[in-house]
Structure formats: C-alpha cells, structure tokens
UniProtKB/TrEMBL annotation:
InterPro entries (alphabetical): A-macroglobulin_rcpt-bd, A-macroglobulin_rcpt-bd_sf, A2M/Complement_sys, Alpha-macroglobulin_TED, TEP1_CUB2, Terpenoid_cyclase/PrenylTrfase
Name of the molecule in the record: Alpha-macroglobulin receptor-binding domain-containing protein
SMART domains (UniProt xref): A2M_recep
Keywords: Signal, Thioester bond
Record's keyword annotation contains Magnesium: no
Location of the Alpha-macroglobulin receptor-binding domain: 369-456
Top-level lineage group: Eukaryota
GO cellular component: extracellular space
C-alpha cells in the first residue's frame, strides 16, 4: 500500500486544483494500476483483506484502508466494483450493537485498536471515516452508521488520548455532527504551540504525524484555513528528503492532509524566483512558473556549508525544503527487542546454521509489539534456499528471501517478552575469505523507533582456506604442496 496510496493523493490534488501536469498524472495512474493488482493478493473470499492473504482472518483496519483506497482509486483506474462492495459489506457485518467496530483476527497496530487505552475509539472512527469519505457508500449504510457516529459523539468526556480525538474529530467533521466543534476544541487543547516557529503539533509518538494530519483535515473541513497553517508548517518539516514519512499510514494521512490544505489555498498564478546564497561565492536561482510548478528543482550544497540565505520574489505558492543526512550508530541505541544468536557446531565452510531467539522488551506497559519483522543478513558468499528457516517455537507468519537470497525476512503478528526461536540454514555459493560481520535486525512494522540490531560473524574463511596452487605457496600456507599436487 505504500506504493499505492500516495498516487491517489497526487491525482486528487491535480484533479481538485485543475492542474495541467499530464506527465505526472500518467506516471501516477501507472503506479496506481500496478499497486491495485498487487493488493488483490491479500483479498479473502468473504470480501475482507488480510495481511497474510486468504489463509488468515480478515482485518477490520486493513479492510477499511483498502476499501476506501480502492473506492477513491476508481476515479482514475478500472477497479472491480464488486470487490469494493464486498469489502464494505464485510465491514458492516463486524459492527457491534452499540455501533463500535472491533478488530477481528490479529491486531497488527496496537494504537489503532486502543493500545493501553483498551478501547476501540480510534479504530471505530477510522472505519467511519472510510465510509464517510465515500458519500455513495455512506448513504447506502447511513442507518447503521448513525449508531457509530453517536457512539463516538457520546464519548467526548472519555477521550483524553490525542490519537482517539483526532480520528474522532475528523469523522464527525465528515458526518457533519453537531458535536464536531467541541471535539476540535478539546483536540486543540491537547496540542503544543511553538510561538517561535508558529507551529502546532501533538506529543503523541509514534502516531504524532497521523494526529497532526487528521487535525489539519478537520481544520480544512471546518473552513479554518488560517488556524490550520501552524499544523501545516509542522507537518511539512517532518517530511523525509523524498517527500514522504516513515510508514504507510503516516505517508497517506500526512500527504493527504497537506494536499487537501494546498488544494484549498493554492494560487492560480505561480510566477516567482527563489535565490539561494552561501559562502564563499555560492549562488543559485530557481525560476518557478505555472509550466514547471511540478518539476522538482534541486541544489546539492557542499558538506561544509552551515549557513544559507534565501530570497523569494514574485507571486504564488510553493514548498522549499532543506534535506540533510547523517550517520547514526544503531548498535548503541537502546534496543526495544532482545536478540540471541547461537552458532551451531554443524557450521562448516560449506554450511552455516544459527539458532536465533527474539523477544520484545516491554515499554510503557505495552506487553506486545505491533507486527514485527526479523531480517537476517547472511555473510558474503552464503545464500538461503526455500527451507532456510525452521520455526522452533511457532508464530512465524511469512518468510521472504531478498537480495538474490542473501537476506531472509521473517514476519510475526507481534512479539512479546517470551522468546520466539527459529533456526537459519545457509549454504556457501562462493568462497570468500575474511568476510565482514553480518547483522540480524528486529523492528516494529508500525513504529520504526522500536528496533534492535545484533552482529554476528558465522564461519570466517581465511585466505589459506580458499587459495589454490601457487597462491597457497605465496601465502606460505600449510600443506600448500599437497594442495598443488591435488
């Protein structure tokens, strides 16, 4: 979905602003078509979607996400209407008598389900948004969804978490409920306003991007564009160098909020010049006009530059971003998981076997992680085959091989404080001496700040282990003459 939903945002923005950018439109539609076909692999026969496909129970969260994305994408590509209808039908069947939508099957994102709060406010609001953003679908199920709207609206006093509030506020904005303004006021009360930077945000990691995104969407829906500007500033500053955010949901919500805001304030005329100055004699001028507004103009700044001056002259709106990179030693970071690696005695120069155990280190009373991935990078010369992983304790949902079989990725629904163990078997394809250490990495799929990394060497071949004939003699290896005769 990470390569699917941003294209919907781009196409919606072009459509709403009536911007002529056919090359961008064509590229986005092509990406959308391929992403749609890929997502169909996760559809179940009952209409739901599952992270693991047909063999596992459908997910309320994923089905709502896919259903609303497919419905919007249908404006630009051919989407099977029966698939969308079946997904929304399945969602309605999950509704409880009080209007709440629970997560069925495995819970992959604790914050969406309620996490520590042990409530379904966020997920229920998320499902309501999926219906309400598609007016045709919302009207079809409005009688059932009225119970959901009232379930949310009647619980303002019980909502203290900004994530619950942000989703609920936007849901009530879309349904035009009478309490929508009260929810917005309470959400704003929990924000932080930086007067120096004139930015507004919420201290709600790891979902702070989503909270700000839903808050910005709510402000735009309420027609409060000026009040929304501080949130827009903060969201813009959190973007990565390539323009998006770390995760799928963050990227979708953050970019959707920024695009919706831009569509409501965009200038019909773009004619301005940006001049950049830096010491000692660096200077660059960018000219922006209606014909190149969607062309990214870039400048590589020398590494030793610490100060720049920027001048803007003309009329219009645009986005100026300074992107930088730095190195971080991940091995000294405080880990969120424990990794134990044991090299078995069966390891030889032809085969390597490792017993690996991983577990979650509870923080903030969370006893489980979200969906977790374990990536095993093999030493140079070793590769994994289709039977590379033996699950010793159970729980592995999927196994993938990457980078020409030199890396194996294991998926778990979640990890808890109990060890999950497996065996890794790899075979040597090339003889390589003195290889560098390799790594095993564990991370939370929905919160990249939760991770752990562990180094291991495996069986290290020496130069004399791989030399032949004259090379062995040059290296003064033992038994070189014998090797030469053989």
């Amino acid at each position: 979905m990470l390569h699917f939903v941003p294209n919907i945002v781009v196409l919606d923005y072009l459509n709403e602003t009536n911007t002529a950018a056919e090359d961008v439109r064509t590229k986005a539609i092509n990406f959308l078509s391929s992403g749609y076909q890929n997502q169909l692999r996760y559809k179940r026969s009952d209409g739901a979607f599952s992270v693991w496909g047909q063999s596992y129970a459908g997910s309320t969260f994923l089905t709502a996400f896919v259903a609303k994305s497919f419905k919007i994408a249908a404006k630009y590509i051919q989407v099977d209407k029966s698939i969308v209808d079946a997904a929304f039908d399945w969602l309605v069947k999950q509704q409880q008598s009080d209007g709440r939508f629970p997560e069925v099957g495995q819970v992959f994102q604790a914050d969406m389900q309620g996490g520590l709060r042990n409530n379904g406010f966020a997920l229920t609001a998320y499902v309501l948004i999926a219906f309400a953003e598609n007016k045709e679908v919302y009207r079809k199920y409005q009688s059932q969804l009225n119970k959901t709207t009232n379930f949310i609206a009647d619980r303002l006093a019980n909502m203290e978490n900004p994530y619950d509030l942000s989703l609920s506020t936007y849901a009530l904005m879309l349904t035009n409920h009478g309490k929508r303004t009260e929810f917005l006021h309470k959400l704003v009360e929990k924000s932080i306003f930086d007067r120096n930077q004139t930015e507004r945000y919420w201290d709600s990691k790891p979902v702070d991007i989503e909270v700000a995104g839903y808050a910005l969407l709510s402000y735009v829906a309420a027609g409060k564009l000026l009040d929304a500007t501080p949130i827009m500033r903060w969201l813009n500053k959190q973007r990565y160098g390539l323009g998006g955010y770390p995760g799928t949901q963050e990227t979708f919500v953050g970019l959707k909020a920024l695009a919706t805001f831009a569509a409501n304030v965009t200038s019909r005329r773009n004619e301005y010049t940006v001049r950049i100055f830096y010491e000692p004699n660096g200077r660059r001028t960018f000219d922006v006009h209606m014909h190149n507004s969607f062309n990214i103009q870039e400048l590589d700044i020398p590494n030793n530059i610490r100060k720049m001056k920027v001048e803007v002259e003309g009329i219009g709106r645009g986005f100026f971003q300074v992107a930088y990179q730095y190195y971080q030693n991940m091995q000294v970071a405080k880990p969120s998981f424990s990794i134990t690696i044991n090299q078995l005695n069966t390891t030889t120069e032809h085969m390597q076997q490792l017993d690996v155990c991983v577990k979650y280190i509870p923080k903030e009373a969370y006893q489980k992680s979200n969906m977790a991935l374990v990536e095993i990078f093999l030493p140079s010369g070793l590769v994994a085959d289709s039977d590379a992983i033996t699950d010793k304790t159970g729980g592995i949902r999927r196994i993938e091989r990457r980078f020409s079989d030199t890396s194996v990725v294991i998926y778990y629904d979640n990890l808890d404080p109990e060890d999950k163990c497996f065996r890794v078997t790899a075979y040597r394809r090339y003889k390589i001496a003195l290889h560098l250490p390799s790594y095993i990495i564990v991370y939370d799929y929905y919160n990249f700040e939760r991770f752990a990394i562990q180094k291991y060497e495996g069986k290290v071949l020496q130069l004399c282990d791989i030399c032949e004939d004259e090379d062995c003699e040059t290296l003064s290896c033992q038994n070189s003459s014998k090797l030469a005769i053989m």
